[in-house]
Amino acid sequence: MKSWERCLHACLFEVIALAMLIPATSWIMGENHSLMSVVMISVSLTAMAWNIAFNYVFDRLVPGDRITRKLPIRIVHSISFEAGLLLVSVPLVAWLMKCSLWQAFLLDAGTALFFLVYALAFNWLYDNLRARWQQQPA
């Protein structure tokens, strides 16, 4: 996958996720949309940078046609991505929300659970739509 396409992939992934997460976390946390927007957008920008770097390395370590990747590889991909992101995002969330690392971890863990399912579904759909698009005549 080309660099520009990885950037498109990351941007689409984050924009769709933010559209779902900001209202949901505002409601669940009882916080205003402004604070949760700052928190989620900050984490999103961090995640986008991590997404590009992580996927570049993952694609090198797991070569081959991405459309043929089976569920176990996709699960390893999602879990390892989220674990790496948690290491950076928990301190960021704690600082932005002025809360403890534990509280930030709980919020981030809940968000990570959402992303485990979301990433699996999004990447499967993206890869399949990409494969269809590439098969169409120019």
Low-confidence stretches: none
How many domains make up the coordinates?
1
Number of helices: 4
Question: Residue share in helices?
Answer: over 70%
**Rg:** 16 Å
**Helix/strand/pairing class, anyone?**
mainly alpha
Structural commentary:
The protein is mainly α and 138 residues long. The chain has one domain (3-135). The chain is built from 4 helices and no strands. The mean pLDDT is 88.
Blueprint (SSEs and pairs):
Layout: H1 3-29, H2 33-61, H3 71-97, H4 101-135
Give a nutshell description of this structure.
The chain has 138 residues and is mainly α. Helices cover 86% and strands 0% of the residues. The chain has 4 helices and no strands.
Properties at a glance:
single chain, 138 residues, mainly alpha, 86% helix
